């Protein structure tokens, strides 16, 4: 993965090997597909590490032809960042001795589902409104680019200490060229709504559920991200399709 657009470690940034050797601060995900955890370096900076856990032999074979999920994730993070979307950059990528691929990203904050579950959004209406608008803007921009994100869910957005929303795990993105917008937009928005509602139900608070006003605010911001026709209607130009 040496051809990936990743930054080089500097005197101010740690070597990836140093981060991989650090003790786990918190494990966010562990299943047959991947493991995600955070570490803290000697300067107090936090990092998120994702390691793919399926068959190392299969990972090596798929990586040789450039089709490993980690390679797709690096590619799509770079594409979306180039399009000026708020995507957490990938700091380093590689593989261990057995062939398991890994990715390292800087820590930006807790994911959106956690913010919903612990009531932080419900307790701060201004922040809730701002986060909703940011989500709508991200959705609108991705759709304008004709990109289908099959993992457009609450766990794949993080909110930093300043209240800025960032997209993570863009490996689920695919070019939507030739696919009707409605075919993938509904799937993306349904998944985001379902996972946000699921997080709200886990909180046990009725005011954590997405409200009608939340949905209206989201859709207004989403459509405002699209270009306008002379008569004021929004449209999605096919000239911006991604393969």
UniProtKB/TrEMBL annotation:
It comes from the Bacteria. The keyword Metal-binding does not apply. The keyword GTP-binding does not apply. Pfam families: Kdo. Residues 22-243 form the Protein kinase domain. GO terms for molecular function: ATP binding; protein kinase activity. Keywords: Transferase. This is tRNA A-37 threonylcarbamoyl transferase component Bud32. It comes from Algisphaera agarilytica.
């Amino acid at each position: 993965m040496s051809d990936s657009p990743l930054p080089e470690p500097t005197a101010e940034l740690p070597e990836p090997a140093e981060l991989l050797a650090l003790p786990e601060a918190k494990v966010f995900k562990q299943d047959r597909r991947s493991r995600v955890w955070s570490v803290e370096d000697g300067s107090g900076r936090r990092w998120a590490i994702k390691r793919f856990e399926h068959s190392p032999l299969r990972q090596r074979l798929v990586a040789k032809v450039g089709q490993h999920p980690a390679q797709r994730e690096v590619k799509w993070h770079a594409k979306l960042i180039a399009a000026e979307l708020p995507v957490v950059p990938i700091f380093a990528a590689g593989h261990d001795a057995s062939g398991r691929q890994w990715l390292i990203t800087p820590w930006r904050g807790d994911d959106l589902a956690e913010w919903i579950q612990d009531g932080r959004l419900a307790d701060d209406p201004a922040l809730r409104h701002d986060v909703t608008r940011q989500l709508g803007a991200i959705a609108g921009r991705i759709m304008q680019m004709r990109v289908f994100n099959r993992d457009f869910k609450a766990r794949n957005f993080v909110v930093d200490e300043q209240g800025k929303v960032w997209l993570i795990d863009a490996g689920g993105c695919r070019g939507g060229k030739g696919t009707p917008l409605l075919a993938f937009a509904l799937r993306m928005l349904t998944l985001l709504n379902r996972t946000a509602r699921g997080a709200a139900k886990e909180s046990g608070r009725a005011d954590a559920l997405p409200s009608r006003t939340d949905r209206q605010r989201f859709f207004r911001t989403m459509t405002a991200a699209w270009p306008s026709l002379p008569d004021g209607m929004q449209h999605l130009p096919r000239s911006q399709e991604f393969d």
